Amino acid sequence: MKMTQLTRVAMAAAVVASGLVCAGATVANAAPDCTQSGPNLDGGSLMTLGAVPYKSGPAAECRTNETRSGKAYIWCRKTNQYGNLWYYARDADSNQPGWVYSGDVVSISGSNGARCGAGLTPPR
């Protein structure tokens, strides 16, 4: 009898634990929004570390619009759902806008640190 109760308790605990793991995974694995752009709120500029992708949204999984290098004008910045900082910027040579990962940036000049905020606009 003790073995049956112990088995039931163990099975119930396993079911509860698996539900908690699944619930946590759902939030962490939510797909990023790759259809964002940001308002022009920042008068600063950045320099990239060689040729870097300009993404359609602030996440590595988002589509690459173009690969550019050099100076870009910062419009705003955003920390994504993974805790990574991205800049919405426009390339100085091609005028290509896109999201640039902060890890690909070697310097920033004149930025006011403006955040993109919740009112993100659809890409043009």
TrEMBL record:
Assigned keywords, A-Z: Signal
Domain of life (superkingdom): Bacteria
Signal peptide residues on this chain, from the entry's feature table: 1-30
Protein's recorded name: SH3 domain-containing protein
Species, as recorded: Kribbella italica
